[in-house]
C-alpha cells in the first residue's frame, strides 16, 4: 500500500504568517490528493481536492500544489481560525490513506 | 447536498460487535460512495473502507479484513458499518463520509468505546 507522510507533524506560527505543510506519497498518485482541516471537537472539512482545486467556500488564502509524490498546502496569511490540524489524503485507489496530520499551533 | 446523521454512542465489551448507522438525506445520497473513517482520541484519521450505495460493492483497508462489514438499506437511505471481534484499541470516533475519492460531507461521528 502507498504510504502518506506529512511534515512537519506540528508547527508554531503567528497570525499573518505564511505556513507550508508537505505531504509525500511513497509512490506516484498523480493529482489524486485532498487536504482536510479539523478543529478540536469538530468533523474534518475538505479544503482542497485534486491537489490544487479549492473547495467551494474555502478562503483563497489556502492553496495546494504538487503532483506525483510531492504535495504542498500553503496558507498565505494565517488567520486565528486557521489554528487546527491538517490532513492530506490520497484517493487514486483504495486504500484511501490519510497522512499523519500536521497540527498548527499558535506561537 | 447530502447530509449524514449517525447513530449514537456505543459501549461494548471486548470480543463483541458494534453496528453504526449513517442515514443520508438529500437526492445525492445514492450517487456517491459512503466511506468509513475512524479516529482514536488524540490520534489521526484512519480510513477503513467504502461502499457504493447503489451496487452494495465494498472495499476496505487490509487491517480490517474479516472484521469489517458494510451494508445498506436503500429504502431508508441508510448505510451501516459493523465491526466485529472488538478490542480496546478499536475505541474511537467512527465517521461516515460521502464521496468518490475525497470525501465531503461527513457525519457527526459515533463514539465507540470498547472496555471490559
Give the tags.
heterodimer; A: about 110 residues; mainly beta; 6-stranded mixed sheet; 4-stranded antiparallel sheet; 10 strands; B: about 120 residues; about 0% helix; globular
Order of helices and strands of chain B: EEEEEEEEEE
| Sequence stretches where pLDDT stays below 50 over 5 or more residues of chain A | none
- The tally of helices of chain A reads 0
End-to-end gap of chain A: 36 Å
Class from secondary-structure proportions of chain A:
mainly beta
Number of helices of chain B: 0
Secondary-structure-based class of chain B equals mainly beta
Q: List the chains of the largest interface with their residue counts.
A: A-B, 23 and 21 residues
Query: Roughly how many Å is the radius of gyration of chain A?
Result: 13 Å
Order of the strands making up the biggest sheet of chain A = 2-10-9-4-5-6
Taking pLDDT < 50 over at least 5 consecutive residues as the criterion, the unreliable ranges of chain B are none
Largest sheet of chain B, in brief, is: 6 strands, mixed
What this model shows, in words?
The complex is a heterodimer of chains A (107) and B (116). Chain A contains no helices and 10 strands. Chain A is mainly β and 107 residues long. A 6-stranded mixed sheet of chain A has the order 2-10-9-4-5-6, with no helix packed on it. Chain A has a 4-stranded antiparallel sheet with strand order 1-3-8-7, with no helix packed on it. In chain A, a hairpin with a 3-residue loop joins strand 5 and strand 6. Chain A is globular and about 35 Å long. Chain A starts with a strand and ends with a strand. Chain B is mostly beta strands. Chain B is 0% helix and 47% strand. Chain B has no helices and 10 strands. Chain B has strands spanning 3-6, 10-12, 18-25, 34-39, 46-51, 58-60, 68-73, 78-83, 92-98, 110-114. In chain B, the strands form 2 sheets. Chain B has a 6-stranded mixed sheet, with no helix packed on it. In chain B, strands 1-3-8-7 form a 4-stranded antiparallel sheet, with no helix packed on it. Chain A binds chain B through residues 1, 32, 34, 36, 38, 43-46, 49-50, 55, 87, 89, 91, 94-101, and chain B through 35, 37, 44-47, 50, 59-62, 95, 97, 101-104, 106-109.
